[in-house]
Amino acid sequence: MKIRIDGALDFHQSKSHIPHAFTLPVGTTRLDIRFDYAPMHTEGQPVQNDLSLTLFDPNGARGARHCNPDRNLSITANQATVGYLPGLEPGVWTVWIDAHRIMPAETIHYWLEIETTDQPINEVAHQWVKPVLKPRGPGWYRGDLHGHTRHSDADWDVPDFVRYGREFKLDFVTLTDHNTVSPLAQVDSLASDDLLTMGGTELTTYYGHALALGVREWQEWRVGASGLTMPQLAARAMQNGALFIIAHPHSIGDPYCTGCNWQYTEMWPGNARCVEIWNGPWDGDSGNEHALQTWYEWLNQGYRMVGTAGTDIHGPLIYDPAPGFNLVYAQERSEFEILKGIRQGHLYISSGPRLKFTAQSASGNSAMMGDHITGKEIRFTLVWEGCQPDDQLFIQVNGTLMEHLTTTTGGTRSWHLPAVQRSWCAVEIRSVDGRLRAISNPIFCGPGWA
Ligand SMILES: [Zn+2]
Ligand SMILES: [Zn+2]
């Protein structure tokens, strides 16, 4: 079987999804889809037009290959082009063109060639075996919650990504390719006692990105075309067990980074309870300082939001000399327990300094970051280590600066707050030039927290 489909899209159809259905015959041994479009570049525009393909078999999604310059794909019973899953289920398949970006005043001509064969193919399936790791028990675990490979738009393969985690001596890394789960069996197989590998997807919608962590099944991301709104997609991902994190909400947006800027006003924060406040380099295009302020505003509105970090690493070039990693308190160094620790807000973010931030009430209750503590008078205690001598410590109460001091390399500080009204307390450590070096999640006190 060989069919060719030609079509055109004008710029009004930017951010739309266009389906083309075809029937995969019984006995097919290989499916090839060749796809291209022109023009790639629109004259005078800073970035290229960007279309990619999401593929569905009769039973569900096979993945996507977001923003990858190689647009052709092949699938056999046991193998698939990166970004997609293997297997040939006869019946009606649908290939969707995802028009992530068509520059103004442009018309794109595209063509699809879909070809199948029933010639015998001698291939074996990859046997990805997930190892059982030695228990490590309760403790603080340091790791990354956001990264990509060639299965979407990055420059390296899954083993390279895992090697990066080992080079940084992380306890865990998390692979979150755009709109596909195709690398996750492999990344799971590469865990070992020194490095836990976790997984999920980055829901790369046209009006905002979000991480859905801890699930190995493809998650619907197509707002509108799926019949679902963004809050409904988020709720579905959470029902499926995912930890849902709004990613880089104030990132540079269209046209430079398509869909990267969070524009879902009904999720501000709506049903989201986690937000990435440190994405990539602190001073990069991700608008981290702005994201931090938005997080503080949401906390002031009474949302117990958790702030997280992710390098969003896309290849061997490390753009940040001191990336912000998550330090999560978990009952075990397992994906389930680390994600549970994050849900509880039991984490801080750091590029080096180590924090111990706790609270006690006069009646004997105690709390760590992310917890809500009750009692009339709350004593907060911060212990810090590993700072530069001139680092600056900022103690925030309800987003307002309560105290500012120079850290020296380590130290301790205690203060009291009357817990008569809804309050939260958090700490920042910044270098003398203002760059964030570490930030706690808040401790909550007083009435009115959900
Ligand atoms: Zn993103
Ligand atoms: Zn990303």
Describe what you observe in this structure.
The protein has 450 residues and is mainly β. The chain has three domains: 2-117, Sandwich (Jelly Rolls); 131-351, TIM Barrel (Alpha-Beta Barrel), CATH 3.20.20; 353-450, Immunoglobulin-like (Sandwich), CATH 2.60.40. Helix content is 11%, strand content 38%. Strands 9, 16, 17, 20, 22, 23, 25, 26 and 27 form a nine-stranded mixed beta sheet that branches. The radius of gyration is 24 Å and the shape is elongated. The mean pLDDT is 96. Residues 146, 148, 202, 312 line the site of one zinc ion. The site of one zinc ion has 5 residues, from loops.
Write the layout of secondary structure elements.
Layout: E1 2-10, E2 17-24, E3 30-38, E4 50-56, E5 61-64, E6 73-76, E7 91-101, E8 107-117, E9 139-143, H1 158-167, E10 172-175, H2 184-189, E11 196-205, E12 208-213, H3 230-239, E13 243-246, E14 274-279, H4 288-300, E15 306-310, E16 325-330, H5 335-343, E17 347-350, E18 354-361, E19 366-368, E20 372-373, E21 377-385, E22 392-397, E23 400-406, E24 411-418, E25 423-430, E26 436-440, E27 443-445
The structure holds zinc ion (2 copies).
The site of one zinc ion has 4 residues, from loops.
